[in-house]
């Protein structure tokens, strides 16, 4: 627990305004501190910290190690096996991929990955961020349009800002009718797309990282086909949060739906459920060549070296051998156990009726054949911090999510479930959340209302804050 208090104390210290102390400092540093003070004033200054769960002082309901391949050591064992099988490996790749950075092992692993996902080709890059900037800066041609879900990842936005596409149109999240309207707007305004000589690139994610909901991909593909019968609307699907978790052996949403031939480009990241680093872009030989020739983030960087590729292969070996299927299944079991535990808690119903807490993905969960490991817990503004303090002080690691990661007014806590969590941990999570909710119900129902009253954990943290001021 002392790790948790130390973490909170560090975070509190980091919120102290620095600008006023920098009056005589050089302009460059003073300006930087003043820019950071905007965050600090809002208690939104992020700090580096050592996660309490990594020190065994808290339960992990926040990391991306969803299959627990990292914490269980399975990925390390598979990686060491890869090293042992290739004792003469090179630490370096020797240059960028188109110069000296190509080598047999990376090509072999790419072929294996392409086969695993039922894709024509695979290209390994350094990260999902690099992958999205590569895709969106290199693939759209002048005259093309990008139509994208409003909640796509920041890396997609960064890629799009460098794209040659003539127009970019966003549509309401996961809304098939909104996609239809967006395509109609593009067809109306872009004659070369309407006549089929330019393309619409539709950008979606299979699992949305802050909402834990899933793209209605089949319906979207149907709409695109219907509206663009010449076949010039293509899909780019970011499978970052589906990799390892969703679909046969974790191959992703596109594979689960059997839509491999309907999707032009897929992105799989290896730093989340696969517990290593790097990313893979799947597509046709033309897509691969365009990425290697046009994407600055592929051309002007050193190709991934053997250790990175060996880590990726280790993860793929675990998936393709079927070793991760039991983990996928256990994850599903734990999420449903959380849903039933929280719904059965005597405080849950009232807390949700009063608007103190809501879990949008709880709705109709019994009707879904897949539960997402990302469970957003929505609450009132500021309450997300109070609940996080309560969880952290109870030995549960979770993080609040605020603007700009999510739109203003949509603050939440993002719970992440892991195959290595236990039923007891999940029950503790549900009861701890509901104990906090009971406290909030009491505060909101007290005769003098919620004004000025704060729950115990927030009191403790703000006390620490005052002491550190
Ligand atoms: C949807 C999505 N795409 C891409 C990325 C970037 O992946 P990476 O962390 O490998 O750079 C992330 C990471 O959070 C993500 O959530």
From TrEMBL:
<dbReference type="InterPro" id="IPR015422">
    <property type="entry name" value="PyrdxlP-dep_Trfase_small"/>
</dbReference>
<keyword id="KW-0663">Pyridoxal phosphate</keyword>
<comment type="similarity">
    <text>Belongs to the class-II pyridoxal-phosphate-dependent aminotransferase family. BioF subfamily.</text>
</comment>
<dbReference type="GO" id="GO:0009102">
    <property type="term" value="P:biotin biosynthetic process"/>
</dbReference>
<dbReference type="InterPro" id="IPR004839">
    <property type="entry name" value="Aminotransferase_I/II_large"/>
</dbReference>
<dbReference type="InterPro" id="IPR015421">
    <property type="entry name" value="PyrdxlP-dep_Trfase_major"/>
</dbReference>
<dbReference type="InterPro" id="IPR050087">
    <property type="entry name" value="AON_synthase_class-II"/>
</dbReference>
<feature type="domain" description="Aminotransferase class I/classII large">
    <location>
        <begin position="59"/>
        <end position="433"/>
    </location>
</feature>
<dbReference type="GO" id="GO:0030170">
    <property type="term" value="F:pyridoxal phosphate binding"/>
</dbReference>
<dbReference type="Pfam" id="PF00155">
    <property type="entry name" value="Aminotran_1_2"/>
</dbReference>
<protein>
    <submittedName>
        <fullName>Aminotransferase</fullName>
    </submittedName>
</protein>
<dbReference type="GO" id="GO:0008483">
    <property type="term" value="F:transaminase activity"/>
</dbReference>
<dbReference type="InterPro" id="IPR015424">
    <property type="entry name" value="PyrdxlP-dep_Trfase"/>
</dbReference>
<keyword id="KW-0032">Aminotransferase</keyword>
<keyword id="KW-0808">Transferase</keyword>
């Amino acid at each position: 627990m002392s790790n948790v208090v130390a973490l909170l104390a560090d975070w509190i210290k980091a919120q102290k305004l620095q600008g006023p102390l920098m009056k005589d400092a050089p302009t460059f540093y003073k300006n930087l501190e003043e820019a950071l003070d905007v965050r600090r004033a809002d208690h939104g200054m992020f700090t580096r910290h050592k996660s309490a769960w990594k020190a065994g002082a808290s339960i992990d309901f926040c990391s991306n190690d969803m299959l627990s391949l990292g914490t269980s050591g399975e990925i390390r064992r598979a990686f060491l096996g890869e090293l042992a099988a290739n004792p003469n490996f090179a630490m370096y790749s020797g240059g960028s991929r188109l110069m000296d950075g190509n080598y047999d092992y990376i090509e072999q692993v790419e072929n294996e990955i392409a086969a695993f996902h039922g894709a024509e080709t695979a290209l390994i890059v350094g990260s999902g961020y690099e992958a999205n900037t590569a895709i969106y800066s290199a693939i759209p041609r002048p005259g093309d349009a990008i139509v994208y879900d409003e909640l796509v990842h920041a890396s997609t936005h960064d890629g799009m800002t460098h794209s040659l596409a003539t127009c970019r149109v966003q549509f309401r999240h996961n809304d098939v009718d909104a996609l239809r309207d967006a395509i109609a707007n593009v067809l109306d305004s872009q004659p070369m797309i309407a006549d089929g000589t330019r393309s619409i690139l539709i950008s979606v994610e299979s699992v949305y990282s802050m909402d834990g909901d899933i793209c209605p991909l089949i319906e979207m593909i149907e709409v695109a086909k219907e509206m663009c019968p010449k076949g010039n609307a293509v899909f780019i699907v970011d499978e970052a949060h589906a990799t390892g978790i969703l679909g046969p052996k974790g191959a992703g949403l596109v594979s689960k739906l059997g839509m491999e031939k309907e999707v032009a480009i897929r992105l799989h990241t290896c730093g989340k459920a696969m517990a290593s680093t790097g990313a893979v872009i799947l597509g046709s030989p033309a897509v691969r060549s365009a990425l290697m020739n046009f994407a600055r983030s592929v051309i002007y960087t050193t190709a991934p070296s053997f250790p990175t590729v060996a880590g990726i292969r280790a993860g793929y070996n675990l998936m393709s051998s079927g070793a991760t299927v039991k983990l996928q299944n256990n994850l599903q079991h734990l999420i449903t156990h959380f849903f039933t535990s929280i719904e059965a808690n005597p405080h849950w119903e009232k807390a949700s009726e009063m608007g103190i807490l809501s879990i949008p993905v709880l709705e109709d969960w019994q009707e879904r054949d897949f539960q997402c490991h990302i469970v957003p817990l929505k609450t009132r503004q500021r309450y997300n911090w109070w609940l996080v303090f309560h969880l952290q002080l109870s030995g549960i690691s979770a993080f609040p999510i605020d603007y700009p990661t999510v739109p203003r007014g949509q603050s939440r806590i993002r719970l992440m479930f892991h195959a290595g969590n236990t039923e007891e941990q999940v029950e503790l999570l549900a009861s701890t959340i509901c104990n906090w909710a009971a406290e909030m119900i009491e505060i909101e129902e007290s005769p003098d209302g919620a004004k000025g009253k704060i729950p115990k954990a927030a009191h403790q943290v703000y006390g620490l804050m005052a002491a550190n001021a």
